[in-house]
Design goal:
Rossmann fold; 12 strands; seven-stranded mixed sheet; three-stranded antiparallel sheet; 2 domains; elongated; alpha/beta
């Protein structure tokens, strides 16, 4: 007698992992049970006991056995045809959902079927074996031949099963599902798993070494507290970003930030905010003393915090910040707009270049700050073994570049300077060329009529040039405060669409509950 469903299910699930079964719902298991595990399984006899007697050769007349043999032989051709075609099937689930089911046999599996047919197995046992292989393939098993042979003990002798195994060994030995062939293969698998575990432990130990707590500084140290990032840390950070961008990207991810800092942080600290750079403020003993007193209070409130972390926070809170775009946020935009070669005409600190390199897409960067050249060269050289991107950097004013010679680009994405709120090295003062840049004390002081020449001589002419050579239906996107867009719109044209940019609010960003932690990215589509 055949097993009832619950008993069969209990036995069947013991081998489910080896068979590659992923759907273990009762609906699927009942389908499998009904298809090929029940003893009547589509065979001509409706009486389970009679079927068992025929298999055993007990108490059946020669005529009945002959009729069964004829039936098996006549239906064998159709079964083999089904096996070799073996299309995937669409099944309607109880909830109305359509689900694709089935496994298409590969060449080795088809050769195995041919070898099985040539073994001389009796028609009834051959039919049952092929039927079980067909049923498991239809149900989506990854290893239907292996499974069919693994349940042969139900109707065939040990010698017959061994004969089948030998016939298919050359085709299935290196195939998934060859679990039934020998203990030797099992030992090999165990050894392979052991090697993997050892390798994983070694990698874990190495990772712990890399993340060991760094030696802290003292409040009396006079050197600026740059982030002390090693080459390997920068590489690891880039590889983490590279992994993230393969899936759905979280634009708030900080992966890639360490790589940016490794290359360009020292140049960034020379940026002037309120007419003083961070280095200048640090070198001012009175300013530094006041900031360090604040850092000590932060440390006292959070004793476990490092001194260097407390000092950096105090600098950010008292002196302000010069932010860089998150590489993950740039990568998200590249993926969304299907970019293959990006143009970034205010390249800045390198985050958008690193994002392109993480996605293995090409990048053209333009910037006037030649003090960044060593940092960019460092980053490009460090990451070259880990990316397929081709990077081209141009160090001059963007409006003076000949865009017709840049080659094809299919997406423009940048974050231009917020006028003169931050003054970078080698930055041009368009309002009064040759003179020192006059900086506003805060973003709230910037008015709609300010910095007219910044737009008339630099930003709008650059936008028009980049737009002219952009292919049709492709986009230029700029991350900037609302007031900058209003000034561009007045001089050029309105955008096609606006994107919400979920990042930590930057200097000069919008104020108010509705846009806290968000900015807009303004996009123009080429018509």
């Amino acid at each position: 007698m055949s097993l009832n469903f619950e008993d069969w299910k209990k036995e069947f699930l013991l081998d489910a992992d080896r068979m590659g079964l992923t759907d273990r719902s009762d609906d699927n298991l009942r389908n499998i049970y009904n298809e090929y595990l029940s003893d009547d399984g589509g065979f001509p006899s409706s009486d389970d006991d009679d079927s068992m007697e025929v298999e055993s050769g007990e108490d059946k007349s020669d005529g009945d056995v002959g009729d069964l043999s004829i039936w098996y032989s006549e239906n064998m051709e159709e079964l083999v045809g089904n096996l070799f075609e073996n299309p995937k099937k669409i099944e309607i689930m109880k909830n109305g959902e359509k689900k694709e089911r089935g496994h298409v046999l590969d060449d080795n599996e088809k050769k195995s079927i041919t070898a099985i047919i040539g073994t001389g197995l009796s028609p009834d046992k051959l039919y049952k074996l092929l039927n079980s292989i067909n049923g498991s393939a239809n149900s989506g098993f990854k290893n239907p031949v292996a499974f069919g042979i693994s349940i042969m003990h139900r109707y065939a002798s040990t010698q017959e099963r061994k004969k089948i195994i030998e016939a298919v060994r050359q085709y299935i030995q290196n195939h998934q599902g060859g679990f039934f062939f020998s203990k030797k293969k099992t030992r090999k698998k165990r050894q392979k798993k052991t090697r993997k575990k050892k390798k994983k432990k070694k990698q874990t130990r190495e990772k712990k070494k890399q993340t060991r707590k760094k030696k802290d500084i003292k409040f009396t140290d006079t050197s600026y507290p740059y982030r002390n990032i090693s080459n390997q840390e920068a590489i690891n950070d880039f590889l983490a970003l590279k992994k993230i961008v393969q899936g759905t990207i979280n634009p708030r991810s900080i992966s890639g930030n360490k790589t940016v800092d490794w290359g360009t942080e020292k140049a960034r600290r020379k940026t002037k905010y309120r007419n003083k750079s961070f280095i200048e403020m640090w070198d001012n003993k009175e300013r530094r003393k006041k900031m360090l007193e604040f850092a000590k209070r932060l440390k006292k409130k959070q004793p476990k915090r490092s001194i260097v972390s407390s000092i950096r926070s105090a600098i950010d809170l008292q002196w302000g910040t010069v932010n860089t775009m998150r590489a993950a946020a740039a990568a998200q935009m590249y993926k969304k707009y299907g970019a293959t070669r990006v143009l970034d005409f205010t390249a800045g600190w390198g985050a958008r270049m690193i994002a392109a390199m993480a996605l293995d897409i090409d990048y053209i960067g333009i910037d006037t700050n030649k003090a960044l050249i060593p940092g960019y060269n460092k980053i490009i050289k460090l990451l070259k073994p880990y990316t397929k991107s081709k990077v081209k950097m141009i160090w001059k004013e963007a409006q003076k570049v000949d865009y017709s010679k840049l080659g094809k680009y299919d997406y423009v994405f940048t974050s231009p300077p917020y006028e003169y709120l931050e003054a970078y090295e080698n930055m041009t003062n368009y309002e009064n060329k040759g003179s020192k840049i006059k900086q506003p004390s805060s973003s709230q002081k910037i008015k709609i009529d300010d910095s007219a020449k910044f737009y008339d001589e630099f930003l709008v002419p650059t936008l028009k040039k980049a737009y002219k050579h952009l292919p049709k239906n492709k986009f230029i996107c700029l991350n900037m405060p609302d007031i900058m867009y209003d000034k561009i719109k007045k001089r050029w044209k309105g955008v096609t669409k606006k994107e919400t940019y979920e990042i930590i609010k930057r200097t000069g960003g919008p104020v108010g509950k509705d846009r806290r932690g968000k900015e807009l990215i303004f996009c123009w589509k080429k018509r």
